Amino acid sequence: MEMEKRISLELRNKTPAEVAELVVDNCRSSDGEVEGLSDDYKELEFLSMVNVGLTSLAKLPSLPKLLKLEISDNMIVGGLDQLSEKCPNLTYLNLSGNKIKELSTVKPLKNLKNLKSLDLYSCEITTLEDYRESVFELLPQVTFLDGYDHEDNEVPDSEADDDDHEGLDSEADDDDEHPAGPTRDGDDDEDDEGSEGQ
């Protein structure tokens, strides 16, 4: 589905000015540019355009309230200077899986004064020697790079989306319980199956 058509569907009878979140993942940009968005989306705080075929952010409209931008799995090679002009309040930016190779490409992000979390997983830049140290030095305002801070501490739950981490936490709790007493748990399971069968 084309990006412009998908965006109009996602509006769901709202005007662009009423939309705070917009997710148009896996649709198609016909020319590698952002399509169907305009300056009317002035209340937008979260925008996700994952795997839509973007090669450029030149046509990104001015989104002054945008805090989170997900543009992973596209073909963006540069032009990140557009972000500080058009989305000056970004706190979270996911560029994973793009064609970013050089530190100079991410340098314009230093103008995003509120940027706290930056993801560059699966970009060629991550293969550079001293990649993490260099990015933290270049972008001193960034607290988390690829989900970890300077000391390799993971993003705390309060910083990340609650939904994502609640599921992970409960799975971790389950895993913690099983190793504690595998024999006991195994017996309980067999008893339960036996009683259900009767």
From TrEMBL:
Database matches in PROSITE patterns: LRR
InterPro entries found in the cross-reference section: AN32, Leu-rich_rpt, LRR_dom_sf
Coiled coil: none
Regions of compositional bias (Acidic residues) in chain numbering: 149-177, 186-198
SUPFAM superfamilies referenced in this protein's UniProt entry, alphabetically: L domain-like
Origin superkingdom: Eukaryota
Gene Ontology MF, one: phosphatase inhibitor activity
The keyword Nucleus is assigned to this record: yes
Keyword entries, A-Z: Chaperone, Chromatin regulator, Cytoplasm, Leucine-rich repeat, Nucleus, Repeat
One term under GO cellular component: cytoplasm
Protein location: Cytoplasm; Nucleus
Residue ranges, annotated region (Disordered): 148-198
GO biological process, one term: chromatin organization
Family from the record: Belongs to the ANP32 family.
Its job: Multifunctional protein that is involved in the regulation of many processes.
PANTHER family named among the record's database cross-references: ACIDIC LEUCINE-RICH NUCLEAR PHOSPHOPROTEIN 32, ACIDIC LEUCINE-RICH NUCLEAR PHOSPHOPROTEIN 32 FAMILY MEMBER E
The protein's name: Acidic leucine-rich nuclear phosphoprotein 32 family member
Organism encoding this protein: Salmo salar (Atlantic salmon)
Highest classification ranks of the organism: Eukaryota, Metazoa, Chordata, Craniata, Vertebrata
Gene this chain is encoded by: AN32E
